[in-house]
Fold this protein.
Amino acid sequence: MKPRFDDDMTMDTIMRQWPGTIRVILGHGLICVGCPIASFHTVSDAAREHRLDEDVLVRDLMMAMK
């Protein structure tokens, strides 16, 4: 069974489950790859911390997950 995106997933989990999201994450200026905080931050946390539009980030991540 394929994993489903969940708001509680960490950035690290997202990148591991869907490697195609790494390009999206980097494209939004996030440096989650290799960051020790990625295993704690959710998408909401990352968007807030980096002053990004969470809805746009989630939309782009979801597109990369397909």
Observations:
- Residues 54-65 form the longest helix (12 residues).
- Residues 11-65 form one domain.
- The chain has a mean pLDDT of 94.
- Residues 10 and 40 are 6 Å apart (CA to CA).
